[in-house]
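Batch job 17 of 40 flagged for manual review because the log was empty.
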Amino acid sequence: MPLLEPRDDTLRPVARPETPAPDRVPEDRAGGTPEPLRGELTALLGAGKVLTGISDLVRYASDASPYRFVPRVVVIAEDIDDVSAVLSYAHGKHREVVFRAAGTSLNGQAQGEDILVDVRRHWTGVEVLDGGARARIAPGTTVARANAALARHGRVLGPDPASAIACTVGGVVANNASGMTAGTTRNAYRTLASLTFVLPGGTIVDTADPQADDLLAHAEPALCAGLLELREEIASDPALVARIRAKYTIKNTNGYRLDAFLDGETPVEILRGLMVGSEGTLGFISETVFDTLPLDRRVTAGLFFFPSLPEAAAAVPLFTRAGASAVELMDGNTLRASVSVAGVPADWAELPGPTTALLVEFRSPDESRQEACEEAARAVLEGLSLVSPVASATNVLTRDPAAIAGHWKARKAFVTAVGGARPSGSTLITEDFAVPPERLAEACEALLELQTRHGFDAAVAGHAAHGNLHFLLAFDASHPADVRRYEAFMDDFCRLTVERFDGSLKAEHATGRNIAPFLELEWGPRATELMWRIKRVVDPDGVLAPRIMLDRDPRAHLRGLKTIPRVEPVADSCIECGFCEPTCPSQDLTTTPRQRIVLRREMMRQPEGSPVEDGLLEAYGHDAVDTCAGDSTCRLACPVGIDTGAMMRDFRHARHSPREERAAALAARHFRSVEAAARLAVSAADRIDDKWVIGATRAARRAVRPDLVPEWLPGMPGAAPADLPPTARVGAAAVYYPACVNRIFAGPGDLSLAEAVVAVSARAGKPVWIPDDVVGTCCATIWHSKGYDSGNRVMANRIVEAAWGWTAGGALPLVVDASSCTLGITHEVVPYLTPENRALHAELTVVDSLVWAARDLLPHLTVRRTVGSAVLHPTCSMRHLGDEEQLQAVAEACADEVVVPADAGCCAFAGDRGMLHKELTEAATRKEAEFVRSRPFDAHLSANRMCEVGMDHATGRGYYSVLLELERATRPAADGI
């Protein structure tokens, strides 16, 4: 047993509800997946593809919806063979299967009560076809990732959901999600060229195959006959045909696409239409091919404020007729809640209650068309009675990309921002409906009256140009009276939408568990019974996703509502939307930020010391705390800025013993000696065969604690020179602070990074000065990332006091040569400073070396030679600092071709965490590394030594600082090269 075992019991919740939650996981589930299910699936697929622990089951039990169902087992499917094997097993054992990708669904479509199959992790990739006219996209690929690949060709996907950074293409097709501009003409149903899918019986269908119908008829004759019988029956009923056509003149994703029987003639053509919006109830979509659309890059937009929701709605058709590509509505509650989103004007919090805004955007292919759109928009604006209740409500058209991006950021954060502002402990319901666009204003008035009558102060937003509105309701699912209030509202709302407006109860979020009981209300008995027959024809054994779209229980929407117990304040506002997951380094290894919070909430639901809580705690230390990279990029992706990395650092602190804290503080106070010892150890290791050093560190990890002792990795750099290059204080344009990691580890060549920065700064006429006493100081990130608060406090105050002295009270900028250290000194040290040192810190100007090079040096340098190609690794610290453009600018000065991999993200090396958990870096960099290894590059560049080491380990290529390349590119020929 290691000498210093982590104190995982300190993670046990202290403040919990007085009574356990009614929806807590029962004690008999504490053992995880039961036998024989566990053993049979493990034997069928292999242990690595089957998750059976209670922690795994709970973390997969939640999606972005108000529902929660705990699966019996989770399967990580790697290919179609795995999917077919699971379906075959489920048929033979009479079990049920639900497919889950991003889990951003808002109505429980990504939850199952038996076998849940993860089809995100191994199902990514984009192949651009025909110069961008089409794209073959794997179902686990996010919409944003697909569009990034298409943008280089001037193309874009038709569907554009607000959750594009997180939702997957497979989910978009399965729900027929559309978004801001797709309407009824650019959605997946209209823009899919072909699909490949697996039917419940295991048959694989590629709709692009000319022989597809023959193959299907041979494999599934009863299915083909049943589909053609349904088609004939529908086609022979003119009233039904007219009703179906009328239902799809507005956005509608409620129930199966009955128009598939009108638009398709053969079984394969019918299935191609039925699969869109089928919510995983008819088959698994394994591949998509989209017809793409032109990406009109010339954009004009404006945010226009109205005194009330009905008045804003009345203006929508005016902008639509003027040619607007998007008209988005945000009511007062939405606008006020959005102030929690970074960049949204703070004065929106003071907007009067009924104020409503329209975000109007025009997209054009050229200047003349853009000018025509702007002229039409101004004509509309002249006839409107706009208001300016706060200073930021300027009501102007703009071409400014930053301003337009800010408007859209507020709009796209609707669900998460409003949800984050809900009362603590309340459950969030997201509703989505459509009415004929010309009746939008009337529908808004009716909705407001209905909400008031039932005591809800809901937030409303939506795609107003298409008559599609979303609204959010918050209630306490643990209180029966509140659930009854919600039930009464839903009954009245559905009847209002259908009986008064003949609208769609689901415009783009798909039926889901919330609207399944109301399907017949909208479609009537005849059409609804046809949908049940479709399900029986395609999935006669009811294997796939039961109760998600079709459910005869009139109160099914009240089953499985999840309570939201209070957790740590930093994470309490989480609505479990999943926006954080694509950016998380550990997403394919252990847990994601959302899952870390989901697991914490289940602990809070449990009675103290329950077997379920014990099982969750046993896994939480490693799966949540230890394997969190602590990079906090989740905060950047989260619309309300939840920093799960900060919560994990707090938990790391809680697990430390007093002895560990004292040792960490002692190391901070004597860091000069620690630094010297570290350089000596690195130097010694460099002279010894790697296998001996690796063996020694592994033994030390077993003896002490794996999360405290780093494992030496093959190819680690040697020691940096003991002496820093000589510089002069007199005449210096900046103080240069070489980070401790660059004082300990050498670079890849003969020239150290410090020597390169000094040389290139002098060459640009901006000499820098390195203080004599930098040794023994640090940005404090070492202690901050591990949760050692005492040591963090010691070093944070020391570096600020030293920097204030070096820079003559802030008269000179402090240039730091590692982006993580720049972030540490700029932001992360602040909470640990004394009041006096906070005042000193406010006087400092801390500049990352990338910014220094791009802004202050490049304009004064002559580039004398370049490399052919360079691939970049932007670090997570650069993202926090906003320095990615500077990395690109410096690299473009040094290379003829500069490439940033589309899948570049945090490398998760995180100082030494990649040496504590090397599997974390390997998982985090897998996709990026595949791209880097796919072609040769002349240079592999970044700007943080340990990230470079991590990328070396991940790719087998040699990464180094872009400043070293800048020095080489600008070195005079007389100095040698």
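Reviewer: the log was empty due to a logging misconfiguration, but the result itself is present. The longest strand covers residues 298-306. Unflagging and moving on to job 18.
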